Amino acid sequence: MQPDAADLEKRASLRWMKLVALGLLVVAAAVYVAATVAGPQGWLGYVQAGAEAAMVGALADWFAVTALFRHPLRIPIPHTAIIPKRKDQIGASLGQFVETNFLTHEVLGERIAGAHVGMRLGRWLSDPDNAGKAAEIAADALRGTLEVLDDDEVQAGLERIVRARIDETPVAPLVGRAVDLTVAGGHHQRLLDAMLKGLAGFIDDNRETFRERLAHESPWWVPEPIDDRIFAKIYEAVHRFLGDVGDDPDHELRHSLDARVAAFAARLKTDPELLEKGEQLKIELLEHPEVRAWIETLWLGTKGRLIEMTEDPTSELRYRMVRSYQRFGERLLSEPALRAKVDGWIERGVGYVIDNYRSQVSHLISSTVERWDGAETADKLELQVGRDLQFIRINGTVVGGLAGLAIHAATQLL
Q: Distance (Å, rounded) from C-alpha 282 to C-alpha 169?
């Protein structure tokens, strides 16, 4: 992998700090040489002692820092190149450290409680734009799930569910309840009104046919004018009866219809013969080729429609999803009990993950470090912390020089 800009910047900074630390060592060495050549008498003795101690401190700390990442001067001195040699143990220890000190109920529970996730989620979702983003993500997830499902398996399962549900539901009592609802809403009376109007129209349209039928059925010895009068009376009586029933909401025929329909609905619920006929009709209906074909294509049609709606930002499904997310966000802002419930869900979910998978996180860290090359691991770590470690060399040079001065001064006093 090519180093990114941040790595290049860190490497340049590390190189500069190494030059600074090395420069101090060179300065200390130059001062020591100059003081030694001039002769360490008087105050030059202090300079020589300080410079000498500064060189010792600088070299010791250079050795200590370098030994972490590689062999100093490429000499395989024991207990050097510590990180490349012990990277596997370091990875395991790091994973165990993270698991023990970070992936705990106490630590994460405290962080979740302080984060007020429910409140933040409510603020975010109450914004229509954010609700739209959430709906888009949910729609993508739904579409992806639908596309990877095995259509044959889903169709077979759906068919079994539909058939089992229909098999478990007796048809006759269901029809009886439907009839009860029809009677309660007065729909059967409106149907009767339509039938009465249709029957009156049918009689008018076929008046001549009925008259011919009467002439055919009437004895030969009855005069035709009498047949005409009889037909007219019957025709008018039928029309008056139909009109009376249609105009009178309290007509006895309507009450009789109410009673008969209610009795039929009761029979549908309790009569063994009607119950058996209903089940036979249901079986015939389920075995009908068109019904079976409809059940078989039910999933594909539903799936196709759902995919279309998830892809269309203006679809009813996407609109409902956006509104649902936004209303949920508004409820989170206005209902403390709901916020507490959401926070509890998240805390329990994180707790479940911790209990069941925190060892996997530790293993991930250790196994990842194990796959790294030793030299590469040392280089990665040095890139991250090496710049700060150079201050150890700088401090060693400075502190060593001061210590040398103090020791020389104490020696002179003694």
A: 10
